Amino acid sequence: MLIRNYEKFLNLSRILNTTFGAGSDRTHATQSVKFDILDDGMLKCRYLMIVNFASDTLMREMMRRYNTEARSMVEGALKKIVEDYKTTFPGEEVPKLSIIENTIGEDMEFLTFSQYSGTRKGYYRFGCLVKID
Fold first, then answer.
1. 39, 45, 59, 122: which one has the fewest Cβ atoms less than 10 Å from its Cβ?
2. Are 40 and 5 in contact (CB under 8 A)?
3. Coil, helix or strand for 121?
4. Which of 49, 57, 67 has the alpha carbon at shortest distance from 104?
5. CA pair distance 39, 29, nearest whole angstrom
6. Quick check: 46 pLDDT over 90?
7. Which of 109, 97, 123 shows the shortest CA–CA distance to 44?
8. For the purposes of burial, counting CB atoms within 10 Å of the CB of 68, is it exposed (0-12), middle (13-18) or buried (19 or more)?
9. What pTM did the predictor assign?
10. Phi, psi (degrees; rounded to nearest 5) at 17
11. Burial of residue 99, with CB atoms counted within 10 A of its CB: 0-12 exposed, 13-18 middle, 19 or more buried
12. What distance lies between CA 59 and its chain's CA centroid?
C-alpha cells in the first residue's frame, strides 16, 4: 500500500471509524454500510441488507430495487463522510469521493427457506470501490 499523503490518510481513517454502520447515530437493524480505507486514493465499500421475498422470481425482480436502494445508501454515507470531514478538519482540503462504476458487484445469499412459510429471507450484498480525489 503506497500512501502519498499520510495526513489525508490519517484524517480519513478517523472519519471512517464513526461513519454509518460503525457506531454512528443513524442505525438501521437490517442495513449497514461499511468502508475500508485501502490507501489515500481508494476506499472499499460494503453494503449489506437483510431482505424478505416470496419466490425466486420475485427476488430477481426486486434486485433492481435493492440496487437502487444500495446506491442511495452508499451515496448518502459518502456525503456524510464529506460533511464530517469539513466539520472535524476545518481549513483542510475536503476530498471528493466518487463511486467507480465498473467495480460495482452485487449478490444474494439465501438465509432461510421453509415449505411451510411463504416468506424467504436472504442477504443482499453490494460492493464497490470509491475513488478519493
1. 39
2. yes
3. strand
4. 67
5. 30
6. yes
7. 97
8. exposed
9. 0.86
10. -70, -15
11. middle
12. 21
Give the number of residues written for the chain.
Answer: 133
* Grid cell in block for residue 116: 411451510
Cα–Cα distance between 48 and 103 in angstroms, integer?
16
Instruction: Please name the residue ranges forming H helices in the chain.
Output: 6-16, 56-88
Burial class (CB within 10 angstroms; exposed 0-12, middle 13-18, buried 19+) of 15: buried
86-118, pLDDT tens digit by residue?
999 999 999 999 999 999 999 999 888 777 777
List the grid coordinates of 106. 452485487
Strand 105-112 and strand 120-132: pairing?
antiparallel
Q: How far apart are CA 73 and CA 51, in angstroms?
A: 15
CATH of domain 6-22+30-132: 3.30.980
pLDDT at 23 over 70: no
The residue that leads in pLDDT, 50 or 25, is 50
